[in-house]
Every structure is written in structure tokens, then in C-alpha cells.
């Protein structure tokens, strides 16, 4: 992909990572296709909206449990591992320290969850009673997600990226496909289906452990912790602040589904979470790009290389904006045709999609501002932004969900992300003199807006939905893609396309 040229501009030792970026992008697209088959087709055909809501809420609660238990270790691995990476000294027992902290956190949060169980019963017993029968399954999901994230970040520290993406995006979703097929044909009941889905979250963890053992890294886990006390204090301080920061961020992404389940019930939750997943396709190439870019931020801070940091920030934001606009245009222009394939209960999903995507586009464009801030010496400030965002999202959800249903939830989430990212970007700009803006971005936005207007007032010449989608995609290509490429508004995309043409000719 154009990541070959993107990352090669940043360092001379980037061949492996450039290949990893391309491989992770391909795996992410394969995983997205499987995910769309699952949640966009099989979930809707095989499950009721209440059952969809149950499964998605269990996963959301599991994610929240994982973040609560992590005590900030996930980001601490990325932030500090470059300082302790030393194969001869087995990385000074760094991962062992992180696993120990996470285990203590998991035990503590499990005890707290048991004590607060009566509150959970009161919250969901009226609107979502089905959830209470499966609430215990949150723990294995959360424990699996916690361990997987720690091991994944450890592998990223030794520049191994592909295996974890394959396990999470492909293997895990294929297991869900198998569960849906078994349930759809009546070979297992719904309870067995839920247990199957929950158990599948342990499979990537097992494979990751086996892979690490095969690479000879397992012995390093038994190394005595050799981290100086001064560094331990720094790590603990960073982890605690980042813990609260990450926790609020996860709370924001899971809060809407949990509040909808409490206020409206699992049926509406099923519709909302399905649309959220469909909207997440916009972020597939962006995630592959950012996954690689984030790895360099701690290194640039360590070397005080602000020139490369600025270039990384601008290039990532510009490419992310192009990705976001292209994906948004394809889906939004075809929204009527695409939603015609869904049941009538998903009709409100059009507006849910719009407001959620607005927030996602802004989030993708400002992309690295959070990582730049959280890995800097000013990382404590970020807690003010994420804490404020959590309060705003909760307050807006509390007001809008009872009055406007799932559309209200999407408005609150989208608006909160716009305000949050704008405020954090302004802080990074004022303190570090870093911003994501380039002139080409304005022209991309203008061309994208014109494309939306023209396609909106252009009638379809076909009565068939599939043919109408083909017509709309053709119009988008002519009105948006061609001008972007012709005027070279994103040079790295043009360079990569030329590279592909040469490869094909060769």
C-alpha cells in the first residue's frame, strides 16, 4: 500500500513495518467482510433484535470490564517498552510487571462487580430482563480482551503486528459465523449460541500465547523484574492517569448501548449496535494506518524529533480524511438502497448512521492528537478532556435517549466527539505547535460536499436497488475520486496507484 512510501519517509529501517501495514490492511478488510456477513446479514436473519442487543451489550460490558481491570497497563506497554526493550536482558521483566498489575486489577474489579450486582439488577430488570440471565458471561469476555490487548501491545513492541490482527479480525469473526450457522440451522439453542460466542474470545488469546512461545519469547516472562524504582514510579503515575483516561474513552464508546438497554430495551439496542458496526467500516483502512503510526510517537518524543512528529501528524490526518470521505460518500449516497435490504425496524438507522459518522470523520481527521498528548510529558492534561467528554456524553444521552430514542443517542455521541476532538486539537496546537491542517484537505472537503449535492438531486435511472448503487458509485468516482487524483490532493495515494500500474504492467 502507499504505507510503503508513507513510513519510508519517516525512518530508514521500515521495510518490515511497511509490509505489516499492507498485510494488516488486507486482513482488516477480510475481517470487515466477515463482520458484515455476520452483523449485517446473519445476525438480522437468524436473531431477533432483542437477541442482537443482548450479544452486543455483553461484549460492550466485557470491554468495559477489561479496561477497568487493566489499571492502565495496555498503554503503558506501548509507552515504556522502547526504554526496556533489550533481548539480552529479557526486556528486564517488563511484561511480567504489566501482567501482574493486570491480574491484580482483574481480581479487584471482579470483587467490585459482585458487590454492585444488586444495582445492575435494578438498572436492567425492567427493560432488559434477558440480560440478567447472561450477565456472568461478561467476566470471561473481559478477561480474554484484557489478556489479548496486553499480549498484542507486547508484540507490537517487538514489531510483530500481523498475527494479532489476523486472530482478532479474522479468526474471532469466523468463529462467530460458525456459531450463527449452528444456531440458524437449529443445531444448538440460543443459550449454547451465546456461550459459543463468549468462548470464542478465549481462542485468540490461546493462539497468541502459543505464537509467543514459538518465537522463544515465553522465557522472558519468567525473568525477575529489573526495573529501577524511579522508573517504576514513573510507570505507575503514567498508568494511573492513562487508566482513568482510557476508561473514560471506553465508557464513552459503550455508554450509549448500555443506556439504551436501560432506557429503551434490548430491541432498540440491537438496532443501534448493528448500525454502529456498519458505520465502523469507514475506519478499517484508517485503523491499519494509525496502528503503524502510533508506534513511532513514543520514539519521536524520546528523540525530541518534532519535525518527524509534525509530518506524521499531517500525513496521517490527510490520508485519514480521504479514507473517511470516500467511505462516507459511498454509503451515504446509497443509503436508501442499502437500508432497503434491512427490516423496517432499522429505518431510524439512517439518521443514526449520519450523526455517528460525522463524529467518526472528525475523530479520524484529528486522529493522532490524543496519542501525541497521552505519550507526552503533558499526558495528565488529557484526563481533563476525556473526563469532560464522559460527562457531556452521559448528560446528552440522559436527556436525548428518552425523548428521541436511538437517534438521540447518535446525536449525543457524534456531537460530543466533535467538541472533544476540536478542544484537544487546539491544546496540542497551542502547546506543541503541531496541527493536522494542509491546504489539500479543504479542497477534498469542498469536492466531497459538491458530490453529495449533485448526487442528491440526480435521479436514479434504474428501478433496481443494485443497479442504482452501481450508478451512484460511478457518479462518486467521476465527481470525487477523479478530481482528487487529477489534482493530486493526496500525493501518496497517487504514488501508490502509479506503483500499482507499474507492477501490473511488469
Helix percentage range: over 70%
Overall shape: it is: globular
> What would the average pLDDT be, to the nearest integer?
82
Q: Which residues form runs of ≥5 with pLDDT under 50?
A: 1-18
- How many strands, what sense, and barrel or not for the largest sheet? none
Ends: how far apart?
Answer: 17 Å
Q: What order do the SSEs take from the amino end to the carboxyl end, as H and E?
A: HHHHHHHHHHHHHHHHHHHHHHH
Q: Indicate the radius of gyration in whole angstroms.
A: 23 Å
% residues in beta strands: under 5%
User: What structural category characterises the helix and strand content?
Assistant: mainly alpha
Tally of alpha and pi helices:
23
* Overall number of structural domains: 1
The total beta strand count reads 0
Properties at a glance:
disordered N terminus, 506 residues, 23 helices, mainly alpha
Give an overview of the whole structure.
The chain is mostly helical. It has one domain. 80% of the residues lie in helices and 0% in strands. It has 23 helices and no strands. The relative contact order is 0.11.
Question: Which helices and strands appear, and what pairs or packs with what?
Answer:
Elements lengths: L2 H6 L6 H32 L2 H22 L2 H12 L9 H22 L1 H8 L4 H4 L5 H20 L4 H23 L5 H11 L1 H13 L14 H35 L2 H14 L4 H11 L2 H7 L2 H28 L1 H5 L9 H18 L2 H6 L7 H51 L6 H18 L8 H22 L4 H15 L1
Entry summary:
With 506 residues, this protein is mainly α. It has helices spanning 3-8, 15-46, 49-70, 73-84, 94-115, 117-124, 129-132, 138-157, 162-184, 190-200, 202-214, 229-263, 266-279, 284-294, 297-303, 306-333, 335-339, 349-366, 369-374, 382-432, 439-456, 465-486, 491-505. Helix 4 (73-84) packs antiparallel against helix 12, helix 9 (162-184) packs antiparallel against helix 10 and helix 16 (306-333) runs antiparallel to helix 22 (465-486).
Amino acid at each position: 500500500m502507499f504505507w510503503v512510501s508513507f513510513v519510508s519517509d519517516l525512518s530508514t529501517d521500515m521495510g518490515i513495518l511497511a509490509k505489516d501495514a499492507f498485510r494488516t490492511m488486507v486482513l482488516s478488510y477480510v475481517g470487515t467482510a466477515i463482520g458484515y456477513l455476520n452483523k449485517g446479514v446473519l445476525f438480522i436473519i437468524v436473531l431477533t433484535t432483542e437477541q442482537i442487543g443482548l450479544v452486543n451489550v455483553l461484549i460492550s460490558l466485557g470491554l468495559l470490564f477489561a479496561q477497568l481491570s487493566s489499571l492502565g497497563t495496555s498503554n503503558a506497554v506501548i509507552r515504556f517498552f522502547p526504554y526496556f526493550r533489550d533481548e539480552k536482558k529479557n526486556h528486564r521483566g517488563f511484561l511480567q510487571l504489566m501482567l501482574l498489575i493486570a491480574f491484580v486489577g482483574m481480581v479487584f474489579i471482579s470483587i467490585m462487580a459482585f458487590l454492585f450486582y444488586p444495582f445492575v439488577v435494578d438498572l436492567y430488570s425492567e427493560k432488559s430482563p434477558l440480560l440478567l440471565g447472561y450477565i456472568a458471561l461478561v467476566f470471561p469476555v473481559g478477561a480474554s480482551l484484557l489478556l489479548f490487548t496486553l499480549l498484542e501491545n507486547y508484540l507490537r513492541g517487538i514489531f510483530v503486528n500481523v498475527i494479532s490482527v489476523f486472530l482478532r479480525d479474522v479468526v474471532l469473526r469466523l468463529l462467530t459465523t460458525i456459531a450463527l450457522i449452528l444456531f440458524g440451522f437449529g443445531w444448538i439453542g440460543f443459550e449454547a449460541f451465546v456461550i459459543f460466542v463468549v468462548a470464542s474470545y478465549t481462542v485468540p488469546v490461546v493462539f497468541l500465547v502459543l505464537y509467543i512461545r514459538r518465537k522463544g519469547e515465553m522465557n522472558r516472562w519468567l525473568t525477575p523484574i529489573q526495573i529501577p524504582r524511579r522508573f517504576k514510579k514513573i510507570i505507575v503515575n503514567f498508568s494511573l492517569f492513562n487508566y482513568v483516561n482510557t476508561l473514560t474513552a471506553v465508557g464513552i464508546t459503550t455508554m450509549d448501548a448500555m443506556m439504551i438497554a436501560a432506557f429503551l430495551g434490548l430491541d432498540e439496542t440491537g438496532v443501534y449496535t448493528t448500525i454502529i458496526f456498519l458505520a465502523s467500516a469507514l475506519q478499517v483502512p484508517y485503523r491499519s494506518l494509525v496502528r503503524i503510526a502510533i508506534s513511532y510517537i513514543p520514539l519521536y518524543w524520546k528523540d525530541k524529533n518534532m519535525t518527524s512528529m509534525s509530518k506524521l501528524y499531517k500525513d496521517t490526518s490527510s490520508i485519514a480524511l480521504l479514507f473517511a470521505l470516500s467511505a462516507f460518500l459511498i454509503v451515504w449516497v446509497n443509503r436508501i438502497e442499502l437500508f432497503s435490504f434491512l427490516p423496517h425496524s432499522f429505518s431510524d438507522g439512517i439518521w443514526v448512521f449520519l450523526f455517528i459518522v460525522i463524529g467518526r470523520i472528525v475523530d479520524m481527521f484529528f486522529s493522532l492528537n490524543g496519542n501525541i498528548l497521552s505519550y507526552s510529558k503533558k499526558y495528565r492534561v488529557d484526563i481533563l478532556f476525556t473526563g469532560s467528554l464522559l460527562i457531556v456524553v452521559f448528560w446528552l444521552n440522559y436527556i436525548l435517549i428518552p425523548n428521541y430514542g436511538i437517534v438521540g443517542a447518535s446525536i449525543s455521541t457524534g456531537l460530543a466527539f466533535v467538541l472533544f476532538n476540536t478542544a484537544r486539537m487546539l491544546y496540542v496546537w497551542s502547546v506543541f505547535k503541531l496541527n493536522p491542517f494542509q491546504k489539500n484537505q479543504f479542497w477534498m472537503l469542498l469536492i466531497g460536499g459538491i458530490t453529495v449535492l449533485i448526487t442528491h438531486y440526480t435521479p436514479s435511472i434504474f428501478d433496481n436497488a443494485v443497479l442504482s448503487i452501481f450508478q451512484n458509485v460511478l457518479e462518486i468516482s467521476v465527481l470525487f475520486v477523479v478530481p482528487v487524483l487529477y489534482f493530486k490532493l493526496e500525493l501518496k495515494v497517487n504514488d501508490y496507484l502509479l506503483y500499482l500500474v507499474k507492477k501490473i504492467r511488469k
